[in-house]
Each structure stands twice: as structure tokens, then as C-alpha cells.
Amino acid sequence: MPATPAWPPRSAPRLFVVPELAEGAMVTLEGNPAHYLARVMRVAAGDTVILCDDITGEWAAEVAYAGKRHVEVRVIRQMRGREHVPDFWLCPALIKRDRFYMVLEKATELGAARIVPVITRRSVVDKLNLERAQTVVVEAAEQCARTALPDLAAPAPLDRLLRDWPAGRLLFFADEQGGAPVGDALRESEMAAILVGPEGGFDDAERAAIRQLPQARPISLGPSILRAETAALAATALFMALAGDWRG
């Protein structure tokens, strides 16, 4: 007798949705999500999709209707609760669009709780399309089966970021002029943030302002001069390994 196929199938499309989900609820998908399901994945009535709401977690649902403009799905049962996310903020300086989108994508995959884009004097970019950036974040979470989305903030000038910095949160900043070994520093706190500069690094005035912040801790990311996007993602991965959810 053949084995009963697993349900829901691993190949089922995954989507984040806005309404809070509950067993038996009917959800109407329109716009890009409906286009993705109906035109790209070509779902039909009876097919399975996986929905996440960034509140309750992950749910299996069944397509009730798939039309050209909207798709209706019925929520069947919860599969996982919303995952625990380490209390880690990534504060990367704005860099060229495609490279910054890669930072957003990979930081989401790695599990950052909050991403705060920063505008510095040497930033070659001072604007961010937040709608597109949020789409990058959502698609990254869907692709790697996360059940939580990072909070994506609007870009903030460095001076404002420092002025409004919360008292109880350490701010590790990658200082190309040197600092504590990153492996030692990141074990200091499980509620922290990492600040990474742009391609040209922080200027002297910015570096002095950061160091004046009581919560600031300069760190070194090793002997090599890393690109801005490499430094941001390497620091995020190190935090997850040393103080985050990679410890098991």
C-alpha cells in the first residue's frame, strides 16, 4: 500500500498576509499575492498554500477560488507559532540600491529583529524606496520559511540615530581604526545592535560622535577591509552565532 503523501506538501507556496489568521478563516488575496498564486504558481481550488501573518505564526490553507484578480483561501490549521527572534538590530549605512537590497534580504534570512538604515556623510545614497525594500524583506522571509518579519525603519541620519539611542541597548560599531575583537565583544549582551558604515567608512567627526555615546562599543571585524555589505552581514552572522539563536 503506497504511503500517504505528507500534508501540507513541502512544495506549497508560502505567503505573508496582513490579517491575523485563525482556523476556519477565509482570506481574500489581491494584487501581487493573487498574481503570484494564480499566474505564477497556477494554483486551483483544492490546492494547498502556506500563510504567515507575523503575529500568530504559520498556517496551512486550502484554495477555495482562484480567479484572475483575486484568490480566496480557507485557513485549515496552524503549523507553527511565530518564531522567537533574537533582540538584535542591524544599523547599516545606506549604499547603492542593489547592494543594500542584498543586505536587507540576507539580514532577514539571518534573523535580525529590526533593520535601521543610516545616512552618513559618506553615503552615496540618501533615499530608500521603503515599499520596495519591504517587499524584499517579505520575499526573503517567505523564501527561507521564517515566520517573523524584521521591523524595517525609515532611513535615519546618524546624528538622529545617536541622539535617540535607547539607554539599555549596546551599539557595537565596526570601526576600521580598530576595536575589541568581535568574538569577545558580542558575547557582552543579548540585546544589542551593530552599526556599519558606508563604502568610505565613517569620517573623523562621526567616529568621535559615536564613541561619545555611552552605549557604543567599537569592534574590529578582522584584518581585511571589508565592503560595507560584507561587513553588515558578517557582523549579523557572528551575533547570531555568539549571542543569538544559532546557539541552539
Describe the structure.
- The protein has 248 residues and is α/β, with parallel strands linked by helices.
- 29% of the residues lie in helices and 27% in strands.
- The chain has seven helices and 14 strands.
- It has helices at residues 31-40, 97-110, 130-143, 158-163, 182-185, 204-212, 228-242; strands spanning 14-16, 26-30, 48-52, 57-66, 70-81, 87-92, 114-115, 118-119, 151-152, 156-157, 170-174, 180-181, 191-196, 216-220.
- Strands 9-7-6-13-11-14-12 form a seven-stranded parallel sheet, with helices on both faces.
- Helix 2 packs across helix 3 and helix 2 packs parallel to helix 7 (228-242).
- The protein is elongated and about 60 Å long.
- The two termini are 39 Å apart.
- The relative contact order is 0.14.
- The model has no long low-confidence stretch (mean pLDDT 92).
What's the total count of β strands? 14
**Unreliable segments of 5+ consecutive residues:** none
Mean pLDDT: 92
The structural domain count equals 2
Instruction: Tell me roughly what share of residues is in helical segments.
Output: 25-40%
CATH topology of the largest domain: Alpha/beta knot
- Any idea what the CATH superfamily of the largest domain is called? SPOUT methyltransferase, trefoil knot domain
Shape: elongated
Distance between the termini: 39 Å
Could you tell me the strand content as a percent range?
A: 25-35%
Q: What composes the largest sheet?
A: 7 strands, parallel
Q: Tell me the number of helical segments per DSSP (H or I, 4 or more residues long).
A: 7
Secondary-structure arrangement, i.e. CATH architecture of the largest domain: 3-Layer(aba) Sandwich
